[in-house]
Amino acid sequence: MGSNMIFHIATKENWEDGKEKKEYRGDTLGSEGFIHCSTPEQINEVAQHLFRGKKNLVLLEIDEARVKSEIKYEGSGNGELYPHIYGPLNTDAVASVRDFYVE
User: Fold this and answer.
1) Which of 101, 103, 16 is nearest to 59 (CA)?
2) Alpha-carbon distances, residue 55 vs 33, 43, 63 (angstroms)
3) What is the secondary structure of the chain as a DSSP string?
4) Residue 76: predicted pLDDT
5) Chain segment 66-90, per-residue pLDDT in tens
């Protein structure tokens, strides 16, 4: 895919827990692996559907080349492809963490 960076919205609590363990597991889906975003539009869509009204969020910027688990780009209901990480995210692949707010 085009970008080398992918993004994930997480609660601060789950991200901090993952950092301690040196591997993060997504807190938004009850499936094997978890969905990330690769465009600002995807970030907004995921934020509106899964995080509206939630506080204490962070946006992880992930260097795709450093992710140790398998990444597949898979379709969603809107026809776009979203990066889906199968397995835990090694925390050293996270390039930056920013506070995130859903309006």
Assistant:
1) 101
2) 23, 16, 25
3) ---SEEEEEEEHHHHHHHHHHTEE--SS-SSSSEE-BSSHHHHHHHHHHH-TT--SEEEEEEEGGG--SEEEEEE-TTS-EEEEEESPEEGGGEEEEEEE---
4) 76
5) 999 999 888 877 788 888 888 889 9
Q: Which residues of 57-80 are buried (b: 16+ CB within 10 A; e: fewer)?
A: bbbbebebeebeeebeeeeeeeee
Given a contact cutoff of 8 angstroms between Cβ atoms, the answer to whether 82 and 37 are in contact is yes
Could you tell me the pTM of the whole model?
Answer: 0.85
Give the model confidence (pLDDT) of 31-70 as tens digits. 556 668 888 888 888 888 888 888 999 999 999 999 999 9
| Domains of the chain, each with CATH number or no CATH | 5-100 (3.20.170.20)
Which tokens is 34 given? Answer: 């978890």
Tokens 């026809």 -> residue: 79
| Tokens 């140790």 found at | 68
